[in-house]
Design goal:
- The chain is mainly alpha-helical.
- It has two domains: 160 residues, Serine Threonine Protein Phosphatase 5, Tetratricopeptide repeat (Alpha Horseshoe); 103 residues, Tetratricopeptide repeat domain (Serine Threonine Protein Phosphatase 5, Tetratricopeptide repeat), CATH 1.25.40.10.
- It contains 13 helices and no strands.
- Helix 2 runs antiparallel to helix 3, helix 9 packs parallel to helix 11 and helix 10 runs antiparallel to helix 11.
- The longest helix has 18 residues.
- The two termini are 40 Å apart.
Length: 290
């Protein structure tokens, strides 16, 4: 995740609209201002991409967003291009292509800074932290947190805090960030899944039974919010904990469910690996009755 970060940013893509969607009408004119052809193409492709994501087709969405981004660039529309680059990054993340996502998010950050599109900037920074490396992760998370607090965006604030928890250097710091995130979220379901996922991963090495409960809570939350990427992460965790505790049939079932979700997301290598893991654990003998 973040975060598997995560996994939760993808859940919000339908709610986050770009700052470039303002249409100005002449106050004293009955004539609607003409819209440049490049802008019309970019917006149409954005709509196509959004529809594809709703149908769990991130590969198709990425192609549409890329076409829209090219149109926005050609029309010298920085704010619209920032919005499309951000969405393109999300689509690439959904397909598991972190390198392509990072390239798109770098452009989203640059263009939103240049155009003053703060809403896109904060989200692009937060999402880039998922695929970044080194000191830039903490820098991006802190910038996103600052922007969220300045703009009063409690969901984004919570997500930034979850990101900081995921990269905390000790358990005490992680616990503190998660507590702040829960307070900022105010019980919003899109935040519950990422928090449970981080806690599950923390407990997984030493307390797999506890982690299993938390992974299940995360999976339930991600199903509720429609976050397929988060659900995949939670199912993967459930499969690991079932394997660790010797629940072979249960582990196989989780791997097969994870393979289905990965296939729906267009993550074919992940789907193939989960099917392989399912077949492997199914070869374990059933426990001998006592």
């Amino acid at each position: 995740m973040i975060l598997d970060v995560s996994s939760s940013v993808l859940a919000n893509v339908r709610k986050w609209s770009g700052a470039a969607l303002v249409v100005l009408l002449a106050a004293c004119s009955s004539t609607r201002p003409s819209v440049p052809a490049a802008v019309e193409r970019a917006r149409a492709e954005r709509d196509t991409g959004d529809s594809s994501l709703r149908l769990d087709s991130p590969v198709t969405a990425a192609r549409a967003y890329a076409r829209g981004l090219e149109a926005a660039r050609s029309g010298d529309q920085d704010a619209l291009a920032a919005d499309l680059a951000y969405r393109l990054g999300l689509a690439h993340l959904a397909t598991g292509d972190a390198a392509a996502a990072l390239t798109a998010l770098d452009e989203a950050v640059l263009r939103s800074e240049r155009s003053g599109a703060r809403g896109i900037l904060s989200r692009a920074l937060l999402t880039r932290a998922r695929v970044g490396s080194g000191s830039r992760i903490s820098i991006d998370l802190q910038r996103a947190l600052t922007l969220a607090r300045e703009d009063g965006d409690r969901v984004l604030e919570a997500l930034a805090l979850i990101g900081q928890a995921a990269h905390a250097t000790n358990a005490q710091a992680e616990t503190g960030f998660l507590a702040q995130a829960a307070t900022a979220a105010g019980g919003r379901p899109e935040i519950d899944g990422p928090i449970a996922l981080i806690r599950a991963r923390r407990d997984e090495p030493a307390r797999p039974e506890v982690a299993k409960i938390l992974f299940q809570q995360a999976a339930d939350s991600f199903r509720t919010t429609g976050d397929r990427a988060g659900l995949l992460a939670a199912l993967s965790g459930l499969a690991r904990t079932a394997t660790t505790t010797g629940a072979w049939a249960e582990a196989a079932a989780y791997h097969r469910r994870a393979a289905e979700v990965a296939t729906a997301l267009g993550r074919n290598p992940d789907a193939a690996e989960h099917r392989r893991q399912a077949e492997a654990v199914e070869r374990h003998p059933a426990p001998t009755p006592r």
